Each structure stands twice: as structure tokens, then as C-alpha cells.
């Protein structure tokens, strides 16, 4: 009987299920979307039950589309958006909507946590400073602002781990995702007794932690009925989306670096021993591979900036594209290709949701700099793509400063599909830009991790060697120096505007 593996990704925009065979061939995939709740400026929430309902539909879709017998699925792996705060009561019911990774409400809590623990000590233990993205600041916000909710907490979970509970009835969390909470001892791969004590987080609220490849539950009867899965399929602990994405693109050994363009933009480097960036600009996590770690830089609005641009300036085209079953992003990229490198002196700062790397600043905002009467929508489209790429280069430069050596990057996500964007990346980075055959991202990586847990593969590294193959290499071209000049101007803009961003935010706050 042929064996298959199922990867499930609880993303920011939708739940994705990917079914692969043991050679890595994608048999079927399905994504079902859900909304983001933005009730106030800077807030970002989702209802966890929406994730589960979308997951049920995605699983049913891939079983139906593939035509396979559910009993042929040997293992399930989980991945998903990181840092989101899911709170359950003693009856295992969700207490409030999940506060997401890109929510910016916890500026005050970041300062308090830093004061209590000390920035240097926090970075040394948790691998990162207290920023609005991370789970610890969200727990603290609930304590300070919703005490009636806080007093009912029995379980703290991350998004994919809520779905794990729904799948199996078991609580658990992998060390890679736990690394993003800011109360995890990343070097020792366990909850930090020191941090949770200082923050008054009860340890019994926290689930047991596992390595990503470990089996930590089995499909239960309710899930089997709802999804069509077979009762008892083993579920691997999985990993946060960035570690799973790295497995899905073959970033499993030191010296390999990736760039992923999803809603956020992520630069990822595997390392074989724990190291923290004392400046706090790069963040250290446990890798999905046991005894491995990784450094990560994150832009909050990478593909999210292009999505905003699409939703704002291409509304009519979106309706037409949906009717004709074409991708409106192809139209945007096509218009951008009509414009010369540098967008005729138009530069875009992609800080639509604040920023995390290299500027941990929740007040930062997006900017079109140099806009003139000669500029059209096409210029703006290219400037957005170039601005995102400049931001990713910021992250790569930090890796170089940290001593990480590399001559090429593996790219994935929506931006990697565009030959224009790959050419821009190659010239802005002045590096070879490489794509691989695996294009289903974190869900694909989660399926590989499930294969290791189920005994299909010896380990993640050997699985990647078997499955992941390079498909294209884009080398730097003729516009390296042009982009170097524009990148230098880009780098000057944030320092010049930093205080003005905060002043602008204060004007709005004063009017409330």
C-alpha cells in the first residue's frame, strides 16, 4: 500500500492542507481563507474556530481531490503563524479572539517586561528582546486590560497548537514555535523558569514541549468524523511556519540561507549552536531539527505590502481577474516590468504594520518617497516590489554582520514565483537567487516532519536531500550598481523619519 503524508499550515490568511507521497510529489493541496479582525488601528485578531473550520474543509478537499484512501496517510504534520495568543478556560473553550503576530497594541507591555527582566538578560535566555510581535507581551496586555479574561486562563497555546488540540484532544507545542513566545529558554530548549516566574505566568498553563519530529497525538474520533481522516493517524508536533518553511526548502545545515516572501518577509540562517544577537535585531530560535538553531530577521509587511497595494489600487482588476480565473498579481508584476530599475526615483518604505527587523518600531509607517507627476500606478507597483527587496537586504546585511557567510539564497513564497522579482532580488542582494522544486512552503515542510516522526525518513536532513532539488538560479545582472545607489537612499529614510512616525501616532492618540 502506497503511503502519503499530510501537512497542515494555519497561516495568517488561510488554512492550507498539502498531501504528498514519500518521494515528495504533491498529490493535492487546498487552502481555505478566514478573516482578520482589525477593530482598532494596530490591532490584529482572528477567531480560532475559524482556523479549525477552514482546516476541516482543506482536509476534506485534499482527500476528495486526491481520491486516496484515508488509511494510506501515515502521518500528519502541523505548522502555522507564530506568536499568536490563544487562551482557553477550564472547559477548553476559547476565551477571546487570538491576538496575532502582527498586532501592535503591546508597546507599553514591551517596556515593562524589558524593565523587569533586563534587555540583555532577556536576549541571552529567549534569543530576542520583548517586541510587540511576541506572545509574552500579549499575555501581559490581557492581564493589564482584560483581568476578567486573564483570571479564567487554564491553557496558553499558539495557533497551530489549538488546531492540534482539535485534531487529537492533546496539548503540546514544539520547541521551534515555543522559541517565539519570549518566555522560552532557547539555548536549553525548555520553558524558562526565570522568565515565567518574573512575569507571573503559571507553568501549568503551558503545554509540554517536544522536538518537531516527535509524535504527540493521534487523530481522534470527532476529527475522523468531521474530516474523513482515519482514526488514530499519528500527528507530529511540527514547527512554527518559518522553521517548517526552512525544512520545505532544504535549509537544514549551517551555511544555508533562505528568503521567504509571504505576508511577512523572512531571512533565515541555520546554525549548529545557540548564539544570540546582543543588539536584538536578529532573533534566535530552536530549529525544527534537534540540536539545531536558526537566526531570523523578519519584515512585518513584505507580501502584505503588495497585497495592500493590490487591494487599494486594483479593485476593478481583481473582479475581472476572478471572473477570468487569472491571478491579478501577474498583472501587477507585468505593469512593474514596464518601469526601469529604481522606478524613476520613487522609493517605497514597506512599514505598513510597523517594523521588526532591522528597526523594532511599532510606530514606523509606509512611505512613497519621491512621488511626482511623472509617476503612474506602474511606477508605484515596481517601487513596492523594490522597497520590499531593500528591506530583505537589510536583514541579509545583519546576517553578514553576525559573521554568517553565504554566496546564494534560496527564495520561496509568492515573490519567488515572479522572474522579475527574482531578478530584482539578485541585483539588490548581489547574490545568486535560487529556487527549488518544493513550492508548497511550510505545509510541505510539516509533511516532511510528519514523515520523520512516522518513521518514513531517517531524519529531516536525509529527507531534504532526497526530496528538495534546485530548479533555477538567477545571477546578478546589469543593475547592481543602480540598485546600490537606491538602496543607500532607502537606508537614509527611516532614520530621518523615525521621530516623525512617533509624532504622527501621538496626534491620533491625542484625538481619541
Characterize the structure shown.
This protein has 512 residues and is α+β, with helices and mostly antiparallel strands. The protein folds into 2 domains: 4-249 and 439-470, 2-Layer Sandwich (Nucleotidyltransferase, domain 5); 301-406 and 414-434 and 478-510, ATPase, nucleotide binding domain (Nucleotidyltransferase, domain 5, 2-Layer Sandwich), CATH 3.30.420.40. Helices cover 41% and strands 21% of the residues. The strands form 7 sheets. A 7-stranded mixed beta sheet has the order 17-18-16-15-21-22-23, sandwiched between helices. Strands 3-2-1-5-14-13 form a 6-stranded mixed beta sheet. It has a two-stranded antiparallel sheet with strand order 4-7. 53% of the residues are buried. This is Xylulose kinase. The active site is at 241 (proton acceptor). It catalyses: D-xylulose + ATP = D-xylulose 5-phosphate + ADP + H(+).
Summarize the structure.
With 512 residues, the protein is an alpha+beta fold.
CATH superfamily of the largest domain: ATPase, nucleotide binding domain
As a percent range, the share of strand residues is 15-25%
Give the biggest beta sheet: 7 strands, mixed
Give the fraction of residues assigned to helices.
40-55%
Give the low-pLDDT segments: none
Broad shape: globular
- Walk across the major sheet and give the strand order: 17-18-16-15-21-22-23
Site (Important for activity): 9
Protein name: Xylulose kinase
Function: Catalyzes the phosphorylation of D-xylulose to D-xylulose 5-phosphate.
Family: Belongs to the FGGY kinase family.
